[in-house]
Specification:
This protein has about 250 residues and is an alpha/beta fold. The chain contains 11 helices and 6 strands.
Length: about 250
């Protein structure tokens, strides 16, 4: 069961956290990848409220993506009033994979995981490209907020060098249900905030890919009781992906 918490207080704290960080570091704006899902919708809403929508640039980055996701991205941008750009990565992705196949003796099955992971990496590269461009155009620093929530991070459901890379995180200590609560509080469209979470890449929901429910991940995080088999599966994911948080570094002896 979700622990009782004050969504208004948390939302206001996040907005102040953003404003304080921006003021302290003399930052001007944010470039946010808008996927059409609740996490990016909530992040975009929070940054629009914290900075003003004129200082937020949303980027829709399709790559064999669903039309529904684009419609949801547009809904979010219209709701909060920030500019939404589109940069289609499909041709870049296909050219990348084609060249890999041309110079290596590999099949589509061999490339399945590689192909899934290159998409978020291409997206992250593009977001940072736009951030550098707008920093020049707007005469002030633009940075890239992350959109991962606490449940995703706990089980390592992100791509190294892809959606793991960001300059500021505002959902990393919120479970999925808490993200939904914040989203509803700030007015993220219902079809976005209540949409079944998916990566927009694999034609599967997150829970289908993980084999566990986000509500159960939240229970494990909060040390609440879950079925033993479910607990073991979640902890296995957690331990298997711990390497994503650590970069082993040799330190020379004194």
């Amino acid at each position: 069961m979700l622990k009782k918490w004050d969504v208004e207080k948390t939302t206001n704290e996040i907005i102040e956290f953003i404003r304080d960080y921006y003021k302290k570091n003399n930052i001007k704006g944010a470039v946010i990848g808008i996927s059409g899902g609740k996490d990016s919708g909530v992040v975009a809403g929070l940054f629009s409220k914290a900075l003003g929508p004129e200082n937020v640039i949303g980027v829709w980055l399709p790559c064999h993506s669903k039309e529904e996701d684009k419609k949801n991205a547009i809904l979010v941008s219209k709701k909060f009033g920030f500019e939404l750009l589109e940069y289609d990565l499909t041709n870049i992705y296909e050219a990348y994979v084609k060249q890999i196949k041309d110079i290596n003796d590999v099949t589509d099955d061999d490339l399945y995981d590689s192909n899934l992971n290159i998409k978020p990496r291409l997206r992250t590269t593009t977001l940072y490209y736009y951030a550098a461009m707008y920093s020049h155009l707007k005469k002030g620093l633009y940075i890239v907020p992350g959109t991962s929530n606490k449940c995703e991070l706990y089980v390592g459901y992100f791509t190294k060098g892809g959606d793991s890379v960001s300059d500021i995180r505002v959902l990393a200590d919120l479970t999925v249900e808490e993200v939904i609560s914040v989203g509803e509080y700030i007015g993220v469209p219902t079809e976005v905030v209540r949409k079944a979470p998916d990566d927009g890449l694999s034609n599967q929901t997150d829970e289908e890919k993980l084999g566990v429910k986000y509500s159960d991940i939240a229970k494990v995080i909060n040390k609440e009781k879950v079925d033993k088999e479910v607990y073991e599966k979640i902890e296995k994911l957690h331990k298997r992906n711990e390497h994503k948080f650590i970069t082993p570094t040799y330190m020379k002896g004194e």
